[in-house]
Design goal:
Layout lengths: L1 E5 L2 E8 L2 E7 L9 H14 L16 H11 L7 E2 H8 L3 H9 L12 E2 L12 H12 L7
Parallel strand pairs: 4-5
Antiparallel strand pairs: 1-2, 2-3
């Protein structure tokens, strides 16, 4: 794991076999950083500085095919845009509640931008450190279009 200080907290990223597998708040440097982890830190710094609008990093999500599909759809949401749990559910032909649960189980928040997924009636939740306040800070940082927060 390698960690980087951001305005959203200290973020640690892990890789397994050439793909990112986890991002945690308050992460600590452990072991020798790989080229992929150094690139992840560089992209997180660029994002934090407002110089990056799309992460370009290989990732692997463990879990069900549904979890992987939800993560892939979240990864594709452009910076400054949002979707609802219902939007993603409709794309997958599934109910919105399991989409919300899959968003909450996202192992690589920020890079897989689950903060860009909202409920139909408000912000919804956020499983990262700081909860919804961090979600709001990330969305403000990105200039999320039409967001009244």
């Amino acid at each position: 794991m390698i960690a980087v200080e951001t305005k959203f907290g200290r973020l640690g990223v892990e890789e397994t076999d050439g793909a990112l597998t986890r991002l945690v708040w308050d992460g600590q440097d452990v072991g020798e950083p790989t080229d992929l982890l150094r690139e992840a830190v560089a992209q997180l710094k660029a994002y934090d500085d407002g110089r990056l609008d799309r992460f370009d990093l290989p990732y692997r999500v463990h879990g069900s095919m549904f979890q992987k599909q939800v993560c892939d759809l979240m990864y594709a949401i452009p910076l400054g845009e949002t979707r609802t749990y219902g939007d993603i559910a409709k794309e997958l032909g599934q109910p919105a509640q399991p989409v919300g649960q899959a968003c909450g189980a996202n192992p690589i928040p920020v890079i897989i931008p689950c903060h860009r997924v909202l409920s139909a009636t408000g912000l919804g939740g956020f499983s990262g450190a700081g909860g919804v306040e961090t979600k709001v800070a990330l969305l403000r940082h990105e200039g999320a279009a039409g967001l009244l927060i």
